[in-house]
C-alpha cells in the first residue's frame, strides 16, 4: 500500500503541490490526471525522492521513504517516462536487465526475466533481445521502456505520461497491454497523464489535480457520474466526445455481412445505440435491418475502432 500523507512542495513563493493526501492499494493502478502545471509530475517525483517534499511524507507498505537512501529507494520503484529514456548504446536485453543487474541478479535469471517481459509485450525474444533502441519503432521502444521499469518486479511503478508520444491507435493498444500485464504481475502503478480518457480507461482509481491540490480521488465511474468540481466535469465532458460523435453516425456506415444474435436494429439507428445494445446484452455484434429486411450486422469491434479514430 502507498500512503501519501499531507505532502507539499513549494518553490520560493509558489506551491507546486499543496497538502495532498491519498492512498493507493497494492495491485492497483491509480491515475493522476490534471491540466498542465497542476503538480502531477512533482507529486510523482516526490514518491521516489527525485524531489524532496517540503513537508509531509510517503509510506510504502508502512515504511517512510525517508528511511531509505534515495538511490536504494529508486531500485525498488520503477520509473517510466515519456520518450522511454532507453540507453541508446545498450541492446534491448541490457536495457531491460539494467536494474536486475544493479541488484546483483545471476545472468540466467536476468535473461529469463528479459525474455518473459518481451513475450508479455508481444515482442519475440529471439528477434528483439539483441537489437538496439534505434532499430525499433516508437511503439516498440515505449514497450521496452515499460518492460525495463517492470523488470525487477518493483514494489511500485511510477509512470509519467508513458504513452504521451504515441499516436491514438497504438496508444489504445499500449494501454490495453499495460492493463493486462499489470493484472498478470499484480503490480502497483501510479501513472500521470493529462488525458482524462486514459485515466478512465486505465485507472482503478483516478486522482484529479488542480492548482497543486487533489480535488477528487475516486473510481472512474464515480468521476464520470459525480465530478467534484467544474474542472473535473469539463475534463469528463471531453471524454464523451467520441460517444457523442458515435451518436451522429448511422449503423449503415459500418454494416457488414454476417449474422448476429438478438433483436435487430434499423440501419438508421446510431452507432452509439448499437454500442449500448452490445454492452447491455453482452453481444459482440447486433443484426441490422434495411427497410425491415435483415441485411447484415455491425460488430462491437468495428464500433470501438471507429470511436478510437475520434479519440
Ligand atoms: N524546479 C522547479 N522550480 C520552480 N518551479 C517549479 C519547478 N518544478 C515545477 N515547478 C512549478 O510547479 C508547478 C507544477 O509543475 P508540475 O511539473 O508538477 O506540473 P504538471 O501537472 O506535471 O504539468 P505538465 O503536465 O505540464 O507536466 C508548475 O507551476 C511549475 O512551473
TrEMBL record:
<keyword id="KW-0813">Transport</keyword>
<dbReference type="GO" id="GO:0016887">
    <property type="term" value="F:ATP hydrolysis activity"/>
</dbReference>
<dbReference type="GO" id="GO:0015697">
    <property type="term" value="P:quaternary ammonium group transport"/>
</dbReference>
<keyword id="KW-0067">ATP-binding</keyword>
<dbReference type="GO" id="GO:0005524">
    <property type="term" value="F:ATP binding"/>
</dbReference>
<dbReference type="InterPro" id="IPR003439">
    <property type="entry name" value="ABC_transporter-like_ATP-bd"/>
</dbReference>
<dbReference type="Pfam" id="PF00005">
    <property type="entry name" value="ABC_tran"/>
</dbReference>
<protein>
    <submittedName>
        <fullName>ATP-binding protein</fullName>
    </submittedName>
</protein>
<dbReference type="InterPro" id="IPR003593">
    <property type="entry name" value="AAA+_ATPase"/>
</dbReference>
<dbReference type="InterPro" id="IPR027417">
    <property type="entry name" value="P-loop_NTPase"/>
</dbReference>
<feature type="domain" description="ABC transporter">
    <location>
        <begin position="2"/>
        <end position="236"/>
    </location>
</feature>
<dbReference type="InterPro" id="IPR017871">
    <property type="entry name" value="ABC_transporter-like_CS"/>
</dbReference>
<keyword id="KW-0547">Nucleotide-binding</keyword>
<comment type="similarity">
    <text>Belongs to the ABC transporter superfamily.</text>
</comment>
